[in-house]
Amino acid sequence: MLTKRAIPVLTDNEEADAVTYEDFEEWVKYDEEIQNFLIKFVGFHPIEAAITRYGTILQHLMQGFDEAHKQTLSLYKDQSQKLLTVNNNIKEKIKETIKQN
Questions:
Q1: pLDDT digit string (tens) for 62-78?
Q2: Low pLDDT (below 50) residues in the chain
Q3: How far apart are CA 34 and CA 39, in angstroms?
Q4: I want to staple 49 with a disulfide (CB 3.0 to 4.6 A). Which of 9, 45, 60, 69 is the partner?
Q5: What is the pLDDT of residue 15?
Q6: Exposed e or buried b per residue across 65-96, where buried means at least 16 C-beta atoms within 10 angstroms of its C-beta
């Protein structure tokens, strides 16, 4: 029988000295160190851990994408303003040329 002294990271609301299967199962499924061990040496980890890991990776990728997007918008906003100014100047020149002819 596993005891809480054998696995000190397990905690639950009960004061019992024994670890329940549910406590042990939750610990194995969600403990990051165990998941890293399982992936490295066994090549396996539970779907719950895979979903969590995927969510973390996706969040990092989305943050990187958002940052790149902001930088691109900032760059093109400046370029867009310059093009708009040039476009307006050309329109004015065309209007002046039409009036003169």
A1: 998 888 888 887 878 77
A2: 1-4, 6
A3: 9
A4: 45
A5: 60
A6: eeeeeeeeeeeeeeeeeeeeeeeeeeeeeeee
The total number of structural domains that make up the chain: 1
What does DSSP assign to residue 15?
A: -
Which structural domain, as residue segments, surrounds residue 95? Answer: 31-100
Residue 67 gets the label, from left (phi > 0), alpha (psi -120 to 50) or beta, of alpha
Residue 62 counted as domain residue: yes
Q: Is residue 1 part of a domain?
A: no
Q: What is the rounded CA–CA span in Å between residue 36 and residue 20?
A: 23
Given this model, what pLDDT does residue 12 score?
Answer: 54
Return the amino acid letter for 29: K
pLDDT of 41 reads 85
